[in-house]
Specification:
By secondary structure, this protein is α/β, with parallel strands linked by helices. It has a single domain, classed as TIM Barrel (Alpha-Beta Barrel), CATH 3.20.20. The chain is 32% helix and 16% strand. Strands 2-3-4-5-6-7-8-9 form an eight-stranded parallel sheet. Helix 1 links the parallel strand 2 and strand 3. The two termini are 19 Å apart. The structure holds N-carbamoyl-L-aspartate and zinc ion (ZN) (2 copies).
């Protein structure tokens, strides 16, 4: 018997669209299923000012194929020289929905990020006043801290002190990967939210390292032990409004992933909804999929939920390309390691 489910059109609250030829190739993969996305600003050079965000938004809309509707929600990349007045103006005009904090050196294209958090205090204070969310890549960069501990240490050393020093600051803990992240977000008040990716609900660190090294499963924050994956699954499927989908779909051309020093990022835009339906069904939580993909994030960002819907139908094995061709080279689509049966239908 075929099963089907209708949900509000999902929002991706953490997405990398890149630029140029890569943007053109990956944008339809998201716009086919998602109505809106919080678009990450870690381009080279980064999207720092309101003018740069407006120009990037124009490039995204220009790359959108005819007949597809999609709203890119722009984000400014926080640097130690960010001007609070520019941030406030970009927010007031409706252009910018968040500011992104990258600890310098923590992840892909984070070199222009923050080293000394004192130098961004005045920006954060202004954001707290105007209610503009701060999206945080939550990992310390201290080389003495083990990479599997960097998220938990960040919460204690950086995130909690920032939140205490800046009352009212609205924060999204991006792509949480640990039970410590789940616990901290779950204990927060209404100023705190957390995104969870599709791939962190599916893989643990064994998938990256056991039986051969799998560069297409390498992302940051790196997938952790199984107990952390299970904590993420419980959070995502709980219906708790603080947890919402941010796929962190992060395309890199295959030759840069399959490399002696491979790039971090999993490209999941193509099959994310099929995977999520599978995961939520396994957890007996299909009735909470819509909250995770389409309601909780919109609520955090103070947006009305989408008025549009998508249908998911369970049937024969879903086929999808293993790679997307882009002008910058092929990009491998995330392989969940199991057959998918939920397809998105009009
Ligand atoms: C992201 C990217 O490639 O831009 N990579 C990743 O592994 N998640 C950056 C990020 O979100 O940290
Ligand atoms: Zn990140
Ligand atoms: Zn990301």
């Amino acid at each position: 018997m075929s099963q089907s489910l209708t949900i509000r059109r999902p929002d991706d609250m953490h997405l990398h669209l890149r630029d140029g030829a890569m943007l053109e190739a990956v944008l339809p993969e998201t716009a086919r299923h998602f109505g809106r996305a919080i678009v990450m600003p870690n381009l080279v050079p980064p999207v720092v000012t309101g003018d740069q965000a407006a120009a990037y938004r124009d490039r995204i809309l220009k790359a959108l194929p005819e007949g597809m509707a999609f709203e890119p929600m722009m984000v400014l990349y926080l640097t130690e020289t960010t001007d609070p007045a520019d941030v406030a103006a970009a927010h007031a005009s409706g252009l910018v929905k968040a500011v992104k904090l990258y600890p310098a050196g923590a992840t892909t294209n984070s070199q222009s990020g923050v080293t000394n958090f004192q130098n961004v205090r005045h920006v954060l204070e202004r954001m707290a006043e105007i209610g503009l969310p701060l999206c945080v890549h939550g990992e310390v960069t201290d080389p003495a801290v083990d990479i599997f501990d960097r998220e938990a240490v960040f919460i204690d050393r950086v995130l909690d002190p920032i939140r205490r020093a800046t009352p009212g600051l609205r924060v999204v803990m991006e792509h949480i990967t640990t039970e410590e992240g789940v616990a901290y977000a779950g204990a927060g008040d209404e100023t705190l939210g957390a995104t969870i990716t599709t791939h962190h609900l599916v893989i643990n660190r064994n998938h990256i390292l056991a039986g051969g090294i799998r560069p297409h499963y390498y992302c940051l924050p790196v997938a952790k032990r199984e107990k952390h994956r299970l904590a993420l699954r419980r959070a995502a499927t709980s219906g708790d409004p603080r947890f919402f989908l941010g796929t962190d779909s992060a395309p890199h051309a295959d030759h840069l992933k399959e490399h002696a020093c491979g790039c971090a990022g999993c490209f999941t835009a193509t099959n994310t909804l099929s995977i999520l339906a599978h995961v939520f069904e396994e957890e007996g939580a299909l009735d909470r999929l819509e909250a995770f993909t389409s309601l909780n994030g919109a609520r955090f960002y103070r947006l009305a939920p989408s008025e549009d819907c998508v249908n998911l139908t369970k049937g024969d094995t879903v086929t999808y390309p293993t790679k997307i061709e882009t002008g910058a080279g092929p990009v491998t689509v995330f392989d969940p390691g199991f057959a998918l049966h939920w397809r998105v239908t009009p």
